[in-house]
Design goal:
The complex is a heterodimer. Chain A is α+β, with helices and mostly antiparallel strands. In chain A, 46% of the residues lie in helices and 12% in strands. Chain B folds into 3 domains: 218 residues, 3-Layer(aba) Sandwich (Rossmann fold); 84 residues, Ubiquitin-like (UB roll); 88 residues, de novo design (two linked rop proteins) (Up-down Bundle), CATH 1.20.1440.230. In chain B, the strands form 2 sheets. A 4-stranded parallel β-sheet of chain B has the order 3-2-1-4, with helices on both faces. A 4-stranded mixed β-sheet of chain B has the order 6-5-8-7, covered by helices on one side. In chain B, helix 2 runs parallel beside helix 6, helix 3 crosses helix 6 and helix 9 crosses helix 10. The model of chain B has no long low-confidence stretch (mean pLDDT 96). Classes of the chains: A alpha+beta, B alpha/beta.
Chain lengths: 160, 415
C-alpha cells in the first residue's frame, strides 16, 4: 500500500515547501501535514516524504524518531497529553495521571481498545499558572481536578 | 501600576489584534527606526539599553546583533526562539497570546538593524494554537504594510515564516534550533563558528527569544536611557516574571529588573496560601539551582542570581511549599533531563540516564549516603563536558537539591 496525501494535504505541503530555500527544512511541517491528513505517519508515508524532499528514507526516520509529537502507529480519536513536570507535580499531577490511567485502563503511550483516547505524558506544557494542566487534542485545560478530569473523560468516551 | 505606564503585556487576552496594538502606539518604534535611523544607530541604541536575553542565557541582545558581519554577500536570517520549554516558564506564551504584534515589531527592528529580509519563528508544537494566532497577526501586519515589501514606504522589507517544532526541549538551545529548522534532529552544533557568522543554511543568523524581541520596540520608541532607567545599569528594562507553585496568584508579572525575589513572591504573587510556608524556590526555570527561604532577598537580575550560584534563566519562578518531599522534586528533575537529553554528547546522554536510574532505585528500594554521593559524582561528570548548556542545566539543579536537602534525602531513602 503506498501513501497518497489528500488533495488538501498535498496543497498544504506544496505551500510549505515554497517557504524554505532547502527542501529538507520543510520536513517538520510536512510531517505535521501528513499526520493531520492520515492520523499517523506510516512507513509508506515516510517513503513518500523522503521522495518528495529528495532525501534518503533514513533522513526521515531519524527525524521522526527524535521528536515526541509524531505518531508512527494509529492512535485514538482524541489525544490526552498530561503534564508531569515540576509545577504540575506540586499541584497533584501524579494523582490526576493515576486517575486517568485507572479510568481508561491504559498507561501512557497506549490507546483505549475502542480507539477513543490515546494517553501520553508531557513535559512542561507552559501552562504552569493553571497547574495541574493537560491538553486534549492540543487544547489546554487547567487547573484540572479529579472531578473535571472524570467529566472530561466521560465526554471524550461519548463524543471523542 | 501607574496609569498609562508602558507595558509589554496588556491585561486581557482580547487586545492582541493590530487595532488594539496601534492604539497602544504600536509600530511607532519600528517606524522611527526604519524612517529616521541608520541600522548602525539602531544597534547602538539597543546596545546602550543593555537588554539581556530573556530566553535564559542573558546575553545582551544588541551585542549579539553587532556580531553579524557587515556587508557580507548572501542572505542573513533572524530566528525567533519561541520554543519555550524550560519547565516552570510560561511568559512567552503570554506574549504570543496577548502581544504578538510587539514580537513582530521587534523582529522588524532587528531585521532592519542587522540587514536581513527573512525571519523564521520556531514555535514549540505544544503552542500550535498560538502559532495559528501569530499567523493571523502576520496577515494583519502585512495588510497594514508593516511586513512584506517596502515597509513604511522605505526600500526595506521582511518576510516572516512561522515554523512549528515537534516536541523536543533541546530545540530551545540555539544551535539545536538551527539544526531542527534545517530538517534534522535537534542536536546542538560545536561552537565556534557561532550562529552570527555561520547559522541557518550556513548564513549569518541572529537568534533571539520572543520576550527579548517584543521588548525592543519600547527601546526605540522611548529611548535607551528610558529603558535602562527602568531596570539596572547592567541589566536594563522590565521583565516578565512567571510565578507558579505554592502562591495565591500564580501568573506573569511585568516588573523592573532588580525587583527582589521575595517581593515578587510575597507581594505580587500573594505569597503561599493560608497556612502554608515556603520550603524552596526555583528562581529561573527547572535548570536553575534551588534557593532556600533565607536566600530570597535577592535582586532578580542576571548577575545577582549567578553570584548566588543559581541563575535568572527564563525567570520562571517555582515556589515549593512546606511538606513537599524533595526526593519527588529530585525525581521529576532527573526524569526530565534523562528524557530530554538529545544523546549527542556521551557524558550527558549516559550521565542523565544514570542519575535518573539511581534516583528511581533510591525511591523504590531506598539506599544510603553513598548513593547520593554517586549521583553527585555523575552530575559533576557531566559539567563542562558537553557541547551545549543542557549539561550544566541538568547537573546543577540535581547538585543543589542534594547539597541543600542532604539530611532530608538521606532520611527519605533510609530503610
Amino acid at each position: 500500500m503506498s501513501y497518497t496525501p489528500s488533495p488538501a494535504a498535498l496543497a498544504r505541503i506544496e505551500r510549505t515547501l515554497a517557504l524554505y530555500p532547502e527542501k529538507l527544512a520543510a520536513i517538520l511541517p510536512v510531517l505535521h501535514a501528513v499526520q493531520a491528513d492520515a492520523g499517523f505517519i506510516s512507513h509508506e508515508a515516510e517513503a513518500w516524504v523522503a521522495a518528495r524532499l529528495a532525501v534518503e528514507p533514513v533522513r526521515v526516520r531519524e527525524v521522526l524518531s527524535f521528536y515526541t509529537m509524531f505518531r508512527r502507529a494509529p492512535g485514538g480519536r482524541a489525544t490526552l497529553r498530561v503534564c508531569r513536570n515540576i509545577t504540575c507535580t506540586l499541584a497533584g499531577a501524579g494523582d490526576i495521571l493515576d486517575l486517568i490511567k485507572d479510568k481508561l485502563g491504559i498507561g501512557p503511550g497506549e490507546t483505549t481498545p475502542d480507539g477513543a483516547i490515546t494517553l501520553v505524558t508531557a513535559e512542561c506544557l507552559g501552562h504552569c499558572d493553571h497547574a495541574p494542566c493537560l491538553q486534549v487534542n492540543g487544547v489546554d485545560h487547567g487547573p484540572v481536578t479529579r472531578e473535571t478530569v472524570a467529566a472530561l473523560i466521560e465526554e471524550l468516551k461519548a463524543h471523542g | 501600576m501607574v496609569e498609562n505606564e508602558v507595558r509589554l503585556l496588556p491585561d486581557d487576552d482580547g487586545s492582541w489584534r493590530i487595532e488594539a496594538y496601534l492604539r497602544r502606539n504600536g509600530y511607532q518604534g519600528a517606524r522611527k527606526a526604519l524612517t529616521t535611523m541608520s541600522p548602525e544607530s539602531v544597534v547602538a541604541e539597543v546596545c546602550k539599553a543593555v537588554i539581556r536575553g530573556r530566553g535564559g542565557a542573558g546575553f545582551p541582545a544588541g551585542v549579539k546583533w553587532g556580531f553579524v558581519p557587515k556587508g557580507a554577500a548572501g542572505p542573513k536570517y533572524l530566528c525567533v526562539n519561541a520554543d519555550e520549554g524550560e519547565p516552570g516558564t510560561f511568559k512567552d506564551r503570554l506574549v504570543l497570546l496577548r502581544a504578538p504584534h510587539a514580537l513582530l515589531e521587534g523582529m522588524l527592528i532587528a531585521a532592519y538593524a542587522v540587514g536581513l529580509r527573512t525571519a523564521y519563528v520556531y514555535v514549540r508544537a505544544e503552542y500550535a494554537g498560538l502559532a495559528a494566532r501569530l499567523d493571523e497577526a502576520i496577515a494583519e501586519a502585512r495588510a497594514a504594510g508593516f511586513l512584506g515589501e517596502r515597509v513604511f514606504g522605505t526600500g526595506f522589507g521582511l518576510e516572516v515564516v512561522v515554523h512549528l517544532g515537534a516536541g523536543a526541549y533541546i530545540c530551545g538551545e540555539e544551535t539545536a534550533l538551527l539544526e531542527s529548522l534545517e530538517g534534522r534532529r535537534g542536536q546542538p552544533r560545536l561552537k565556534p563558528p557561532f550562529p552570527a557568522a555561520v547559522g541557518l543554511f550556513r548564513s549569518p543568523t541572529v537568534i533571539n527569544n520572543v520576550e527579548t524581541l517584543a521588548a525592543i520596540p519600547q527601546i526605540l520608541a522611548h529611548g535607551a536611557d528610558w529603558f535602562l532607567g527602568r531596570g539596572l545599569p547592567r541589566d536594563g528594562g522590565t521583565r516578565l516574571f512567571g510565578v507558579s507553585g505554592a502562591v495565591r496568584r500564580p501568573g506573569v508579572y511585568e516588573l523592573p529588573v532588580g525587583t527582589p525575589l521575595r517581593t515578587l513572591i510575597e507581594v505580587h504573587a500573594g505569597g503561599p496560601p493560608e497556612g502554608r510556608s515556603i520550603k524552596a524556590v526555583i528562581p529561573g526555570g527547572l535548570s536553575a539551582p534551588v534557593l532556600l527561604p533565607d536566600e530570597l532577598d535577592i535582586s532578580l537580575d542576571v548577575d545577582s542570581l549567578a553570584k548566588a550560584g543559581s541563575m535568572l534563566g527564563s525567570a520562571g519562578v517555582v515556589v515549593i511549599p512546606d511538606g513537599t518531599p524533595m526526593l519527588d522534586v529530585l525525581h521529576v528533575t532527573a526524569r526530565f533531563y534523562a528524557h530530554e537529553s538529545c544523546g549527542k554528547c556521551t557524558p550527558c546522554r549516559i550521565g542523565t540516564s544514570w542519575i535518573f536510574k539511581t534516583v528511581e532505585r533510591l525511591r523504590r528500594d531506598g539506599g544510603g549516603p553513598a548513593d547520593l554521593d554517586h549521583v553527585l559524582r555523575l552530575a559533576d561528570g557531566i559539567r563542562g563536558r558537553t557541547l551545549c548548556p543542557f549539561g550544566e542545566g541538568a547537573a546543577l539543579p540535581v547538585r543543589a537539591l542534594i547539597l541543600k536537602f542532604r539530611g532530608e534525602l538521606e532520611q527519605a531513602v533510609a530503610r
